[in-house]
Amino acid sequence: MKAYTYLAKGKFAFTEKPKPRVLGDRDAVVRVTLASICTSDLHIRHGSVPRAVPGIAVGHEMVGVVEEAGAAVPFARGDRVAVNVETFCGECFFCRRGYVNNCTDRDGGWALGCRIDGGQAEFVRVPFADMGLTKIPDGVSDEQALFVGDILATGYWAADIAEIGKGDAVLVIGAGPTGICAMLCARLKSSARVIVCEKDPVRLRFVREHYPDVLTVAPEDAAAFVREHSGHGGADAVIEAAGTAESFRLGWECARPNAVVVVAALYDAPQMLPLPDMYGKNLTFKTGGVDGCKCGEIMRLVAEGKIDTTPLITHTFAFSELDRAYDLFERRADGVMKVAVKM
User: Fold this and answer.
1) CA-to-CA distance for 266 and 287, rounded, in angstroms?
2) Alpha-carbon distance 107 to 121, whole Å?
3) Which end of the chain has a smaller Cβ tally under 10 Å, C or N?
């Protein structure tokens, strides 16, 4: 089968790989029908993910159809499914507490498209498929379900751990795809207002056009704007989804005292906490990779029409055009937000 493969730092290319097969009772093989490119894939290509294994097929955002399933997997051949970015056993210390990103199994955590073959391929083997597949209901399209297992799960996780209360002011830094998903999920928390901070005028316009109830601000005006539109001198909760030194600083600067700052971004370089400047704010920082174990809830919200991420799909490519798709996505050209790749 054809697979888009990480060969070395800076180099992805199509290769031929054997079609995967079920290796254990908890495995499934999924025929990929629609995939996408994540910024994390770019981090792999840039060499910023040390755990990434050269030779693996990349990609961890995908939906498809079950081709084959092990005896312990509650899905049948022909079932449409969304694939979770994480594989997790459900049994270890961390999984039992919902911290599935830290699953201690050899194939646990972010493995697909990083340490084992992922979904920018015709077929993908999913370990622990009994935990990591979510059935797509009738009436939900591949496009509607595409982001359930990754960026939408990340946005849902970030909003969940931000401890957003009714009437809170929530600041989302970064109007990229993950930031938009966090914004969509924060709106479900009955927050009084959601503010999105973004420096790219194209992305600010995207938010204003699609989500007119959301307040928007540029970084240079963010601190004063957030104070003006919140009741306690700053945001009650901050979700940092941009991943730059500037956005990291804005996160703690714009938070009110005793707020929660969720760092959902992946950084290319270390960041510094200037503790003397922060002294007295009593902030709680929550960081890390998504614990994507609530995909069933998320899929239900998609099916009920309460979350719609289809506006994020601004460009569609054929699988054979992945080189072009990556080039467009990395350059953020032509107003791209997310690409869909038809297999």
Assistant:
1) 10
2) 19
3) N
Which of 144, 182, 62 has the alpha carbon at shortest distance from 308? Answer: 144
d(CA 149, CA 61): 7
Residue 60 CA to residue 341 CA, distance in Å, equals 12
CA distance 35 to 49: 21
Q: Which of 125, 9, 129, 7 is nearest to 56 (CA)?
A: 7
Q: Which amino acid is at 283?
A: L
The CATH fold of domain 155-287: Rossmann fold (3.40.50)
What are the residue ranges in the chain where pLDDT is below 50? none
Token pair for 11: 């180099």
Residues 6 or more apart whose CB falls under 8 angstroms from that of 96 comprise: 90
Q: Is 3.40.50.150 the CATH number for 2-150+291-342?
A: no
Q: Is the CB of residue 63 less than 8 Å from the CB of residue 83?
A: yes
| Rounded distance between C-alpha atoms, residue 77 and residue 85, angstroms | 21
pTM for this predicted structure: 0.94
* Burial readout 287-301 (b: 16 or more C-beta within 10 A, e: otherwise): eebbbbbbbeebbeb
- 2-150+291-342 shares its CATH topology with 155-287: no
Task: For residue 57, give the 3-state DSSP assignment.
Answer: strand
Domain ranges of the chain: 2-150+291-342, 155-287
pLDDT digits (tens, 9 = 90+) for 237-256: 999 999 999 999 999 999 99
Contact 83, 91 (CB under 8 A): no
Identify the pLDDT of residue 184.
96
Half-sphere exposure of 36 (CA within 13 A, CB side): 32
